[in-house]
Write a structure and sequence with these properties.
single chain; globular; about 45% helix; alpha/beta; 7 strands; 10 helices; Rossmann fold; about 15% strand
């Protein structure tokens, strides 16, 4: 598994888990801030994304969590502060539920315990994504998703970066991950999470309904939610300074 590990060994590890189609470089705007605060950020590319090859032997969240547990244990970084965005937040939930002894804290960003679109427009978007990736391929999927995640004027460069990352993913891993996201449901297990938890949401997230993220926060004992104004589905990128402030306040508390 390819990963970024630019911090100092021995400092508290922060495992950063990317969203669907992205890779570890999507956390570039967090790395320096975490290092300066005394942490060791570790940003892996999950199998089939970025520079991590997919072996074709089954892609599911339990396997991803097990591979990540091996990674952080092998690096001597456990227990880690766990941070996951969108799909990465789902993998993070699986990780903390399967390997609680390896987790110091949990930060879930733009994610959910169970994905249920709230209106016709959202249902249409997810059906369209599923159809496009199985018929037209990842290049068209990349254009569809990047426009949704970075819709604003002045975000052209972010759209191009997102398109390039998604288009380079292994189609088998991408399709499998989409199916896993549609079937995921941790809602009955969240009460068992015992580590400090924070849910960070973008006020303008058009991918995961805000009420789903609020319900996630309410279901984890002691968790709190922060909603970042003018942020979309990727607040770690489009509102990086505010995001970093909230993340570090939580990690240092």
């Amino acid at each position: 598994m390819h990963f970024l590990d630019p911090g100092k060994p021995g400092n508290p590890g922060v495992l950063l888990l990317h969203g669907l189609g992205a890779n570890g470089t999507s956390w570039a705007l967090q790395l320096d801030a975490l290092i300066e605060a005394g942490f060791r950020p570790i940003a892996p590319d999950l199998p089939g994304f970025g520079e991590s090859a997919y072996d074709g032997c089954g892609w599911n969240f339990k396997r991803m969590a097990a591979l990540l547990a091996e990674l952080v244990s092998g690096l001597g970084a456990a227990p880690v502060h766990l941070v996951g965005l969108s799909m990465g937040g789902v993998v993070a939930q699986q990780f903390v539920l399967d390997q609680p002894q390896l987790v110091r804290s949990l930060t879930l960003v733009s994610t959910f315990s169970v994905l249920r679109p709230r209106n016709f427009s959202q249902w249409l978007y997810f059906i369209q994504r599923f159809a496009v990736v199985h018929t037209l391929g990842l290049e068209q999927q990349a254009k569809l998703v990047s426009r949704r995640v970075f819709p604003g004027p002045g975000q052209e460069e972010l759209r191009r970066m997102a398109e390039a990352q998604i288009a380079s993913a292994d189609p088998r891993a991408y399709r499998a991950a989409m199916r896993c996201l549609g079937l995921f449901n941790s809602s009955k297990r969240l009460a068992g999470i015992k580590v400090p938890a924070l849910v960070i949401s973008g006020a303008d997230d058009s991918t995961v309904p805000l009420e789903r993220q609020t319900r996630l926060a309410e279901s984890i004992p002691g968790a709190r939610q922060v909603v970042i104004p003018k942020a979309g589905h990727a607040p770690a990128i489009d509102q990086a300074e505010i995001f970093n402030r909230h993340l570090l306040e939580f990690l240092l508390s």
